[in-house]
């Protein structure tokens, strides 16, 4: 492994390699697609409920949790290309932070993804 690569990029590459091995098994790929689909459905459902009643603290918490979960599921999915999953994850994490600025998981994952883009010398997606 190239020691010149930043540690966070190496970690993501290793995680991606291990996860990608699971996509060669049709049953594992099916489970990964189902998890991604379920996370998206939960996100959409909780967003709709929160949008209807933004003052409901329970709806707000469920929406933020589902948004962060969908972001993390997307970010870690070996079924999606980096060009697809990282910008989408960033949008989801930023969306969660607008509602809950103190959400540590969203803030930390934004920093991680942005640092990877910076280390690669690429612009950070909006």
Secondary-structure topology with pairs:
Layout: H1 7-22, H2 26-52, H3 57-75, H4 82-99, H5 104-119
Helix pairs in contact: 2-3, 3-4, 4-5
Walk me through what this model shows.
This protein starts with 6 loop residues before the first helix and ends in a 7-residue tail after the last helix. The protein has 126 residues and is mainly α. The protein is flat, with a radius of gyration of 16 Å. The protein has 5 helices and no strands. It has helices spanning 7-22, 26-52, 57-75, 82-99, 104-119. Residues 1-11 and 17-21 have low confidence and may be disordered.
Please outline what is shown here:
Helices cover 76% and strands 0% of the residues.
List the main descriptive attributes of the protein structure presented here.
5 helices, 0% strand, 126 residues, disordered N terminus, 76% helix, flat, single chain, mainly alpha
The radius of gyration computed from the alpha-carbon positions, rounded to a whole number of angstroms, is 16 Å
Helices, by number, come to: 5
Can you tell me the overall shape?
A: flat
- Termini Cα gap: 31 Å
Main pleated sheet:
none
Order of helices and strands: HHHHH
- Quote the beta fraction: under 5%
User: Low-confidence parts lasting 5 or more residues at pLDDT below 50?
Assistant: 1-11, 17-21
